[in-house]
Amino acid sequence: MKKTTASKTSDPNSSVQLCRDFSVSGFSAIPVKFSAGCEACHLLYCKPHQVRGTDDSRPAGRTLFVLNVPPYCTQDCLNRLFSRCGKVEAVHFCERPGGQIHTDDTSTFFPTTQEIRTFKVAYVVFEKPSGLKKAAGLKLSEPFVLSTRDQPVITGMRKWCQKYTQDRPDVAELQSELDSFMADYDKRKKDELEREKARGEEPDEEGWVTVTRHGRTPGAPRTEAMEKKALKREKKKRSRRELMNFYTFQIREGKREHIAQLRKKFEEDKDKIAAMKANRRFRPY
To answer: In this predicted model, what pLDDT tens digit does every residue of 107-134 receive, in sequence order?
Structure first.
């Protein structure tokens, strides 16, 4: 594929010729430009999305696959571009084809996903299959303007200032979101506790009762200390079951160990007496 940016687009027919010159097999090219004053345009390559399996976020027959999406292009820009073909249900961004969908964060102050700052791919989901058919054959006589006066795309210094302001949230709003999150967390934990209690009290189809931590017969927590106690208890039971001094080799080994212990104790006592004599102050001879 050749370069996808033209230097001049003043002639309306130049964009049509540009799409022909830089066409890619299986894709339709759509010329776009950042603003009305830009002379250079950019090409988006799109085709119907085809998947082998089922994907609820990218349903087959209603999803348009868009390549070569510039970093400054937003979901609203693609929505305005393809809304002429039919009502757009959703627009998803990914770093690469088939990758994880970049979803909007539910939290204002604690984002879970990072903004894609490079060229990306997009999946435009229409409400009806007819919208996909029209979008796949969409041909524009002039490049579509992404940033307009009514709906501008924030870039450059204005975007940095906006990011700086967002990174320093209002204390009251932050506290409100934290309280809301903790209330939802407490509610989820309470529901889980009630479900575990219900499981521990009601038998299943075969009559078995699940032992839970909060049931009538709570199970022991699986901690490291509890596991050590269980192993020690099992070792003690195993030692009780062993027959001591039953076989001849057990008696012989027991005597040998006893003699070795006596010799060791004798040598320790000799060293102790020698040390006491050496430290004795009164020496009559």
So the answer is: 667 766 777 888 999 999 999 999 999 8
Q: Report the 10 Å Cβ neighbour count for 68.
A: 21
- Cα distance between residue 235 and residue 241, in whole Å: 10
Other beta carbons within 10 Å of 276: 9
From CA 121, how far away is CA 45, in angstroms rounded? 10
Unique residue bearing structure tokens 């006893």:
258
Q: How far from 159 is each of 1, 22, 47, 75, 103, CA to CA, in Å?
A: 32, 32, 31, 16, 20
Whole-angstrom distance, CA of residue 274 vs CA of residue 190: 72
Tokens of 20: 């022909």
Instruction: Work out the number of other CB atoms within 10 angstroms of the CB of residue 96.
Output: 8
pLDDT 10s digits, 65-118: 999 999 989 899 999 999 999 999 999 898 888 777 766 656 667 766 777 888
Q: Are strands 144-145 and 28-33 parallel, antiparallel or unpaired?
A: parallel
Q: Give dist(CA 127, CA 88) in Å, integer.
A: 6
Reference 45, options 104, 105, 97, 86; nearest CA is 97
pLDDT confidence bin for 156, thresholds 50/70/90: confident
- Return d(Cα 196, Cα 3) in angstroms, integer: 61
How distant, in Å, are the alpha carbons of 1, 219, 261 from that of 97? 18, 47, 75
Which distant-in-sequence residues (6+ apart) come within 8 Å of 80 by Cβ? 151
